[in-house]
Write the structure tokens for this entry.
Amino acid sequence: MALEVQATQAQRAPQWAATGRVVAVTGACTFLGQELLKRLEEDRDVAAVLALDVRSPDLPLEKTTFRHIDLTMPTAGADLAEALTEVGASCVVHAAFLAHPTHRESFAHELEDIGTMHVIDACARALPERLVMVSTTMVYGSSPKNPNYLTEDHPLEGRSLVADRVRAEAQVERFAAKHPEVSVAVLRVAPILGPTISNVVTRFFSRPLAPVLMGHDPLVQLVHEADAATALALAEGSMARGAFNIVGRGVLPYTTVLALMGKVPVPLPRVVAQPLARALWATQIANVPATYLDLLRFMCVADGARARSELGFAPRFTLKQTILDFLGVADDGAPDLVGLP
């Protein structure tokens, strides 16, 4: 079957496929998906781009073709395999993941876990040269047992709303082992902050008040939106394999981050904060689930050395600069408190 698919791909692929990379992007309308499309449009080594999503990207695009693909549908795997074969995709970037937690847990499961299964199924049929998946450093989980810096070899112990992402990574890992002819990479991106992105982090830090769990002040690690987009573009153009932590420059204590942002800390004992957060989430008053309180208790700081050495990714923004850019405030030049991970 694989040989038949490869033969069909060779017959149907456009002639320009031999003159440059052909990149397919799932989740083309996500923040990172759209940022990648912009960079691919400008990349002379990219012959064509296939944008895959439930709606067309609202961007001026010349060499990008849109195709409607809903990864929650049962036929998504076959539809995606046909689309990849038609264009002769040499690289598939899987970025179709939620930016915000949702109360519709079944939908999140269908999109992130089952949707990844459809992407893997399509790649097993079309066999592109490269597969890149976007993940998050939160798959490591926040735990008192975490070391100061989490390397890519650390077990993935994230639970609740990142459990689907953990399962998605497991699927990609199995695919990579079964298909060594496909170069597979997973980007575990730190929580993204910036002036234009909308996600759970920007929602959290857009409120005037911020909870602080009494007795806890963990180090916070973020990455600027521009650095995250640059890292994804580097990974797409690379053949480096495996998982890569994508993190910004430096970390700061949570209370220091709140002070920089001008937020009012609200100290709460954990025995009060946990049931209160569960109730607010259950009644859909809050847009951040109770499990995120673990991030206010324990560290989840990833080591970015492998991405620097193998992808050539060097973040431009320090954590302080990232915060100030999010706020629209000029940098005063004062140094950050904690250095590079």
